[in-house]
Amino acid sequence: MDGQELQKLARDHTAELPGTDQEHRFDPDWELHKVGGKVFMLMTDMPGRPVVILKAVPDDATALRKQYADITPGYHMNKRHWITMEGGDTIDAKLVKELVTDSYRLVAGALRKAKQPMDPHTHNRHA
Question: By the 8 A CB rule, do 33 and 14 touch?
Fold first, then answer.
C-alpha cells in the first residue's frame, strides 16, 4: 500500500468512528483527527512521504516498530506513546483499521465519561 492509499484508508475509517472531528489547525499540511476535542490521529507528509501518526500503548508501540519496517516512532510526538505509519509492503488495510481504532479507543477511553461518544472498552474490538 502506498502512502496516499494509507492516508485515504485511515481518513475514511475515522469517518466511521462515532464523535470524530477533523481539522487543519497547525498548517494546511497537517490534518488532525479528534474525539472529544483530543487528537488521536495526525496526517502529514514527511519529506515526500505521506504518513499517519497514531497513539499507541507504549509496549504495543515498541512491538509494532519491531514487527513492521513501515512503523517508526511518532514524528514530532512522544516517541513512547505515538507511532508513525508510512506506506510500504508491511502495511495492509486490516492493520491500518486496527491501529486507527486502537488509537481512537485509547484517547476516547481517557475522556470524562460524559464526553465519550461510545464505550471505549467494547467499541469495535477485533478478535
Answer: yes
CA 106, 111, 112, 113 dihedral sign is negative
Q: What is the DSSP string of 49-118?
A: EEEEEEE--HHHHHHHHHH-TTEEEPTTS-TTTEEEEE-STT--HHHHHHHHHHHHHHHHHTS-GGG-SS
Please state at what angle helix 93-109 crosses helix 3-15, rounded to 10 degrees: 50
* pTM summary value: 0.87
What amino acid occupies position 104? Y
Q: What's the distance, CA 125 to chain centroid?
A: 16
> pLDDT tens across 49-92, in order?
999 999 999 999 999 999 999 999 998 888 889 999 999 999 99
Distance CA 92, CA 76 (A): 24
Beta bridge partners of 21: 34
